[in-house]
Structures are given as C-alpha cells and as structure tokens.
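User: Can you help me understand a structure? I only have the sequence.
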Amino acid sequence: MPAMEAVVHVLRSEGVDVAFGCPGAAILPLYKALEQVGGIEHLTVRHEEGATHMADGWSRTNGKVGVAIGTSGPAGTNMITGLYTAHADSVPILCITGQAASSKLHQEAFQAVDIVEIARPVTKWAVQIKEAAQAPWIFREAFRIARSGRPGPVLVDIPIDVAQQSIAYDPDIDVPLPVEEVRPHLPRVEAALDLLLAAERPLLLAGGGVIGADAAEELREVAECLRIPVQVTLMGKGAIREDHELYAGMTGVQTSQRYGNRSFLESDAVLAVGARFGDRHTGTLDVYRGERKFVHVDIEPTQLGKVFPPDLGIVSDARLFLRALAEAARARGVVREDGAWVERVRELRATLTRREDFDDVPIKAPRVYKELNAAFGESTHVVTAIGLYQIWGGQHQLAYRPRHYQVCGQAGPLGWEIPAAIGVRKALDSAGRGDAEVLGVVGDYGFQYMVEELAVAAQYRVPFVLVMLNNEYLGLIRQAEIPYGINYQVDLHYDEYGSDNVKIMEAYGCAGRRVFEPGEIAGTLAWARKEAAATRRPVLVEVMIEREANTPHGPAIDAVREFEPVP
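Assistant: Let's start by predicting it. Here is the structure, written out as tokens:
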C-alpha cells in the first residue's frame, strides 16, 4: 500500500480520531491517504502554530497523543512554539511535516529547511524518514516515545519522494508498541511513609504529573488515609477538589492563595509528586526550602535534584507511587485522625482569603472570577494562558476535576487559548461529552495573537465561551518594568484605532458583548452560554476591568512571604 496509507492506519490504531493541520504541496501524499483510509476528522487551521495548540488542548483533555500536520519550510518553523509549549508542560503531541525531495535538501530547494535540527531542543524525538519502509515503524516509535516516561512532543519529517512510495504493510496484524511502566522502588516508598509519619506538619504537593498519570483518585486516597493537607501547583490544579476538606491551596509568587502560602510556610515536610519546582512556584529557594524535609517523586530521573536536592528522591509513575504508598500505610495498619495541623490549615483557609465581592466600576478582576465560578458547573473545562488573568485564575478560579483546568504553564505563549479551546472541545465531542462546556479566559492583548483560529471554530461549528478581561494595556508587563525603572506604556484602546473585539468576533461570524458594570456580568454569561449552544460557535464576553489591576509580582517578592490583597 502507499506508505502514507500505512501511516494513517498507525494513527488510527493509536487512538487518533481528529487531526489539525494545513495542507501544502510537500505533505499532500499524507492528505491523500487521510482521504482514502478515512476515520480521522481533519480541521484545516489558519496557522500551523494553531494546529499544535489544538493538538495540545486535545491531548490534555483525553490523555492521548494529539496530532498536528504541516507542510515543508515555514509550516514546520511555525510549529516550534507549540512544540516548546507541549515540551515544557509534558504534553504528548505529534507534529508531522512535509519536506522537499531528499535529493534536493542539500541544494537549498524551495521551502527546504532542516526542521529536525530546529525542533530537536523542544521535542523528545525529532526524526526524518529516510526510507519509505521505515514509515509505520517510525510512527509507532514516535507514539511510544511521546507517551513514555515524562510525556512530551515528537516530530516526524517526511520528504515528498519518500511519501510517494509504496511499501509492504498489513495493519490487521500490527498494534501499538508497549509503554514500560515506571514502578517505585518499595524501600523508598517505605522511607517516604516514615518521613510523613514522623512529621508534625506535612503537606502533599500535587503537580502536573498527577494529572498526566490520571492519579487523582490515588492522591485523594493517600491524603484521606494519612490525613495530610494537599496543595497543588498551577499545572496540578484540579488534582483534588478545591472544596475538599484537606485542600490547602496553592503556594507561589503569583498563582497562589494567601492561606496556601502561609500553610506552606508553617509546614515541616513536603511530599511533592509530579512537580518540577518551577520558579514561579518556589520564589526564593532558601525561603521555600527553609528547614522542611522534601520527598520528590517524578517519573523522569533527571528532574530529581534539578532545582534543589531533595531529602529523598523517588523515580516512579505518580499513580503507581501513590498506590504503593497507600498500600504500605494499610499494611502497617496506619489509622490517623485530624490533629492540630489539619485544624490549623482549615483555620488559615477560612481566614486568609482574597475579596471577590467588589461592586466597583471599573470592574475589579476578582469579581469576574466570582461570577465565573457561580455560572459554570464542575464539568466545565477551563482554558487559560499567560498574563494577569492567569494569575487571577490561579488565585480565584475553582477547579474540581483533573483535566478540567487547562493552562500553558511554563512556556506561556500568548494566543494559546483559542486554538487550545478548539482542541479541548473536539476531544470532548469525540468522547461523547458534547454537553460539557468549554470556557476560555483571555486577555485583550493575547486574544489577537491567534485570533484567526476563530475562523476554524466558526467553520467547523466548535462552540465555547470566551471571557476577556480587558484593561486595555499590558498590565503584567508594566508591573515587570517597575524594577527596571522604565515606563514603556502600550495602550490598546478599542475606540481609538479600531481593535473592537466584539466587531472582530462578528467578522468571523461569531457573537460578542461588552460589559462595563459588575451587575451585568451574570446575565451576559447566561446569554453567552445559550448563544454558544444555539449557534455552535464561539461567543465572547468582554469585561472592561480597571486599568491599574496589579497583582503581587516581581523578583523581590518571595513565594511564601505574607502580603495583603490588592484593594
């Protein structure tokens, strides 16, 4: 059969039912195969970066390997930001690029670029197919690598002369390659249990690895068995219900709760599972570490000791470790009740909060999140990216379930939300969960970075609600300028030069409304939800918020220092 038909059979057997891409001359053999074999829906994007973010959102929602497709040259280079984002957040996606003919690569042929070398630093594996007979096996290996260990992106580049060949391949007797489980060494599990039982004020810290390993139930079981409060990182948000009796908030420089920072400051031992100790979480390391003991569990060995040396390091899949820890506790007959530490955390959670009930005009951002939490149910999938609204989201947006709070954590590319929301929505539809809502929270600046992908959502009837927090200037960047003594202001007034976001939505065949009063938010959100469901297209609610909407931020602020909420 044609080599590319073999590739499509591999994609289907690996669980791919939707792909996102943009056809071009060098990748047309693959598109022909998609048409011939069938079984994979394809959404034609307006920019290849958008395809990678769609594959990213799709993967974060269902845990499978998302697929983005592009042609040669700039298509591949356009994908680099998406590869970096997936790499940074441990998301398994596969980017497939077309390439100029093998015989022309050394002659600077049209759109011939060494995309493998360009992509190598931001992928787990980047490879060019040299022989057509390798095609199905390279793709099998690509899926295995993407899913193995710490998940991440891979890229496969296909010269057009290779793509046009036929090979011997029988899909009926082929299956995905096995992914080896990374099990914990049991003496280290016992040592971790010893440390937790000896501590007076222990915390569990759930990172994105708990989400990726589908280990939320195991995390809850350990917490309830050992009666230990649980904190989450930004990437771990949703690993435990935020209304759970043992939830202890988030620690961090920006995306944090006041009670979370204080609880962490008072702890004496931390079991961190699937967390990489990012700098916006830790702040100043000597303050973060203090005198407390750390157990660090990660599936990737080189993560241990990367930021600071733990007292105990354990290489393991998060789910398998937590399961082993619970079994070890049961084997010892551990029975614990809530003590002074759990009560102290509950006291802090009840008292060290941030206000949300503002009635001010212009609207204060925390009021927006109060309304979002009231309007959208637990099954809603929230998609958000980088900026002040990411910080407010971490502080105020409630999450109850794993894979329901999607945020680009480390890379932070502006514009991620719209394409990612498309990927999330398609993953839900494929899983028969068309009734689950998707909410994208965006800023006024990042909204226009990938706004062209609204055309994709409109064309393919992909509905979601976008809520824009618009302060009409780069608030977070302006805050960051302060330590440098500069004041390079960027104003984004829609009424001065035409960037009217509601009109932009309308130009793409979508709807939008602008809100100026806090009392208008609830009614406008109700309208947007109904409009999105009725039209099967994105709907925008643009909330005009106060300009000086600053949050605690900057290199001089330690992660666990106390600070008062912004008035």
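Now, to help you interpret it: The chain has three domains: 3-173, 186-351, 365-544. The longest helix spans residues 48-62. Let me know which part you'd like to focus on.
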